[in-house]
Amino acid sequence: MLEKKQKLDEEQTIHPLYSRNSFDMKKRSPLNVFPEEPMNPDTAYHIVHDFAMLDGNARLNLATFGTTWMDDYANRLYSESYDKNAIDKDEYPETAKIEMKCWKMLADLWNCEDPEHTIGCSAVGSSEACMLGALALKRKWAEKRKAEGKPADRPNLVISAAEQVVWLKFANYFDVEIRRVPISLDHKCLDGYKLEDYVDENTIGVVAILGVTYTGMYEPVKMISEKLDEIQNKTGLDIKIHVDAATGGFVTPFLYPELEWDFRVPRVVSINASGHKYGMVYQSVAWTVWRDATQLPESLVFHVSYLGGDMPTFTLNFSKPGAQILLQYYNFLRLGFNGYKDILVALREVAQHLADEIGKMPEFELWNNPTDSPVFAWMLKKDVQRNWTLFDLEDRLRMKGWQVPAYPMPEDLTSITVQRIVVREGLTMDLANELLLDIRKQVEFLEKQKG
């Protein structure tokens, strides 16, 4: 340790400003090497606090879909339950019961025929939830192929090219060919167009996205299903759908209950949604629900006993926080259907106001309106040659504390750059108007700059 300490220079050490005694004032702690001696808790707290203080303001982060605000009662409940490990159902049986209540309530919300006798689970975010749904598709396909005496070594999954990166991870990690259907100006999301060119006997399923990450747009699940009906009539291929409703699963039931995207569509066998997005719970919790128990093969479920009792488990993670599960149930009780609806109506109004005002600006053209989820994107008009881009506007807004991301669209449209706003609870109409003032001011500044 002495030799390591001698190698530390000024740039590799922390100089505490806060201390209770002269000992902490005199010593330095290494930045990237495990410290040899303990430190007073108030000093350690202030060091970490000051580093974290340099992060962005979560309320002004319009890039993330994640919840950044909950009420005082939720915060109290969080502080009372952050030590619960949801995987230990023997130690925390009430948390386990509440987890089951949550996914059954979601099964009912998503129009499952028999919510009491279906199956579901929580997950640590929608990345895990997506993978659980996809793993069930893969295993069901493989078991069917083997029962028919056919090879099951070349599975593929069909999805829009505007997918979230988790689907590429799934394909990579679990040896599944990903078949990405390109989007275009005429087909801005997967809508069934030329779907027959991408599916075959090795297709484990089609993923429909209810809230594309790039723009917030919904892919028309029923239209995709009808296209698969046509394909089955011609080829005999019976291909199922998993709905990645990470965003829309907690929006559509309240704003557009008549839209058929869920278990009302016969080909939909599983759905995932993020509780920490429009479920309005702190990170990180998500949910996967299957149409019925037969859609989750028993061969994927493990039974463990070393925490006490027999515990069936279907997760990629093992330990996971129980607090967020309790917070999800709190929101279900606290808000109810009409409470969620009221909040989402308000968010949609803020999003539409922002979209209307940005759409009026002569420099911009909307990619989409926030008529699906409270999310929309825009691009620069091509009628004038400008010496600035949306990346420049992103940088200028960041100087004011706003995080409004700009990025290129996916393959076949990479020449188009869009900028996106996600409206979440906490972005009031007043804050939205402040954002509009800053956008106008920064655009005016950029327009005056010479190349």
Automatic annotation (TrEMBL):
SUPFAM superfamilies: PLP-dependent transferases. The modification N6-(pyridoxal phosphate)lysine is found at K277. It catalyses: L-glutamate + H(+) = 4-aminobutanoate + CO2. Gene3D superfamilies: 3.90.1150.160, 4.10.280.50, Type I PLP-dependent aspartate aminotransferase-like (Major domain). Its cofactor is pyridoxal 5'-phosphate. Signal peptide: none annotated. GO terms for cellular component: cytosol. It comes from the Bacteria. GO terms for molecular function: aromatic-L-amino-acid decarboxylase activity; glutamate decarboxylase activity; pyridoxal phosphate binding. One of its GO terms (biological process) is L-glutamate catabolic process. Keywords: Decarboxylase, Lyase, Pyridoxal phosphate. InterPro entries: Glutamate_decarboxylase (IPR010107), PyrdxlP-dep_de-COase (IPR002129), PyrdxlP-dep_Trfase (IPR015424), PyrdxlP-dep_Trfase_major (IPR015421). The keyword Lyase applies. Transmembrane segments: none annotated. Its EC number is 4.1.1.15. PANTHER family: GLUTAMATE DECARBOXYLASE. Belongs to the group II decarboxylase family. This is Glutamate decarboxylase. It comes from Lactococcus fujiensis JCM 16395.
